[in-house]
Amino acid sequence: MDRFRKVLGPAPSPAQVFATGHRETFPQARTHHRQQPCPRARFNVDFAPALDLAFEASRSVMSSRTVSADPKQVVIYAREFLRGLGDAGVVGCGKHFPGLGEANLDTHHELPSVDKPLKKLWNEDLVPYRTLRRELPFVMVVARGLSLGH
Questions:
Q1: What is the C-alpha separation between 61 and 7, in angstroms, rounded?
Q2: Contact yes or no for 30/83 (Cβ under 8 A)
Q3: How large a percentage of the chain has pLDDT more than 90?
C-alpha cells in the first residue's frame, strides 16, 4: 500500500484501522479497501491482507502492517478486509505464509529465520490461514526462512 502513497495519497494502515477499537466486527476493515491503492487505481488484485501475527520480535519489520498477536482478531479483521475488496471487484491475497510474526528481518532485503515448534506455529501463525482457507483466493508464500523446532 505504501508504494503508491506519492501517487494516490496516504491510506490508513491495518494497525490504525485495528486501533479504532471496533474489534467485534471491524466495520472500518470492510471499508478500509476503499482507501487502498488497488481499488482506487482499478487493479483487480491486492497482495493484502497480511495475516502475520503482531509479535514483538517482528515489530520493527512488520510495523503497522499487522493488527494483533491474537489469531482470532487477525481473522476478524482479514475477513472484513477481504469482503471489502471483493465488493470492489478486487481479489485479496493472504500473506506471508507460514507466518513472519516472529521474524526480525525484512524479507524484501534479507531472508529471516523463524525458529518455532510446529505445534506453536499450528496454534498461532497458521490459525488465520486455516480459518480463512475458503475465503483466500491465493496465498503469498515465504519459500525459505522457517525452521521448525521440536
A1: 24
A2: yes
A3: 23
